[in-house]
Design brief:
CATH class of chain A: Alpha Beta
Mean pLDDT of chain A: 91
Order of helices and strands of chain A: EHEHEE
Largest sheet of chain A: 4 strands, mixed
Largest interface: A-B, 25 and 25 residues
Helix content of chain A: 25-40%
Low-confidence stretches of chain A: none
CATH superfamily of chain A: Alba-like domain
Shape of chain A: globular
Strand order of the largest sheet of chain A: 1-2-4-3
CATH topology of chain A: Translation Initiation Factor IF3
Oligomer: homodimer
Structural class of chain A: alpha+beta
Strand content of chain A: 35-45%
């Protein structure tokens, strides 16, 4: 699945549109953000995407975690935000 | 319920301890963050708190939203992060 990489220059509304699209197609999405500005834009994007997805009857939540990644040969700590639908699981019968 | 106010100078590990404590007592918590640095510290704090709470068998998720607040007579947009325990819905049969 596509990893959405968000930077401090990302437009939260555009990222929100991308999140909503991935959620509609796959039911979950994954954002990677490195640095305070990027984490801020990503978190705001999820708040905006919640509004878009509410119109589809979807209630998404965020699961934040840390990940070690390598950028230009340097190890950095990224914040990964998993976005998941908080679905009421309907038993299959 | 206590509102946890996080700033860019907050220590994420200390905030994580506070989140875990409120979650254990109340089952949910609420963080307010104004500005990119504060949102970043708050999001990292939740990632750390998830680790603490996993040891208690609790799986918490984040619901980000916006709120208008007034600081020193100025209207600002804060990010509110609601932290909730993710329920596993057991089908009633």
């Amino acid at each position: 699945m596509e990893l959405l990489k968000v930077s401090s220059n990302s437009n939260p509304r555009q990222v929100a549109g991308a999140i909503a699209s991935v959620i509609r197609d796959h039911g979950h999405a994954e954002i990677q953000a490195v640095g305070a500005g990027a984490v801020n834009q990503a978190t705001k994007a999820v708040a905006i995407a919640r509004g878009f997805l509410e119109l589809d009857g979807l209630d998404v939540v965020l699961v934040p975690t840390f990940a070690k990644i390598t950028i230009a040969g340097q190890e950095r700590t990224a914040v990964k935000l998993f976005i998941e639908s908080r679905q009421v699981l309907v038993p299959a019968h």
